[in-house]
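My hope is that you will study the protein record below before we discuss the fold together.
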Amino acid sequence: MISAINKIKPSWVVHEQIQAFCTTRLGGVSKTPFASLNLGLNAGDDSETVLQNRSILRSNLPNEPIWLKQIHGIAVSTPATRGLQVDGPFEADAAVTNIPNEVLAILTADCMPVLFASKSGVVIGAAHAGWRGLSGGVLERTIQEMIALSPGLSPKEIVAWMGPAIGPTAFEVGEDVLKAFSGQDQSPLSKAFTPILERPGKYLANLYLLARERLQLAGIEQISGGDFCTFNDPKNFFSYRRDKETGRFASLIWISSDI
């Protein structure tokens, strides 16, 4: 649910050390069309204003978030790869860590943010899953890198939360998107793509259903979220598909050392 301080808490049951939330578009200083808590530096907003917004966010966190340069790919930033680069942003569409108080962050405005946590609370992950990353395997890669940080960890010991994304009544796509998922099981695929009868070759796609299917195939059993539609909720969310020129909100997760 959306709290009074403009945060969305994941609807999941995790270890008490796991802290996570998703911002809304409310509570910042940006002006229209980026009003008001735009956290994206590359969205066209004034950079100083965005940095003010990030400072507001930082007051709710144990550390500055690990910001990624998201390119709709499947690369995963890890503690080891980050150690090879002096400063961010790190070019990747997902990140994992087992280091307490290291804050993972995903920026979105229609694409799906997916947060992961091991039930033991020792390793976490965050992924940017638009249709390109989702079809390419960014969720599976994130799970693999979590397991690499915690040898012996089973996917069944990982829980996932699907954050706010464009919903199934608003995400119109073409044949190219359908073909990108053509290797997926056909039964869920047919449910995830609803033909638009008056527009041949166009479909309404269900990102949440596509992600859930891939998470389940990867071995994850506890999956929550999928309750929002960024496109149809302009009060709370930025939506690139709806507005074109717009801001970005963030989904964040960390392992707290204070608990």
Q: What stands out?
A: Residues 2 and 192 are 27 Å apart (CA to CA). The longest strand covers residues 112-118.
